[in-house]
Amino acid sequence: MSQTVTALGVEQVTLDPATQAGVEDLIAKIEPLLQARRFHNLVDLLSLLSDSVDLADDAMIQKLVKALDEAVGGAWTLGNAARYAAAQTSAAPPPSVIGLVKAARDEDVRRGLHFAVTFLAVLGRQLRDDDAS
Question: Could you tell me the residue ranges of all domains in the chain?
């Protein structure tokens, strides 16, 4: 059984009762979004998504895939190193200061310390530049 309604400038739309109830529920849900003009944000977001799809070419996709691959690889490496270090240090007592100096004889330890110090220097420089702005 169908019902004829007049809405939104459409002279006659024939809907069955279940569809009519669904449309009424949908309108009730989006009514606050329309009144607060928040529905416009959703339309703008869909427009942005559509434009992004139109602008995406093969080179852009390749760059995004490479960036994602590097981010996942970096996160995996960092997580792996943290798990390994946690396993190594959990059973052993903390080293003394002299033990730390002795550990610095290892080339891998020095490489890691150099990375950490360089990372912290770059981070500090960025913080200083942000404070100056």
Answer: 3-54, 57-92, 94-133
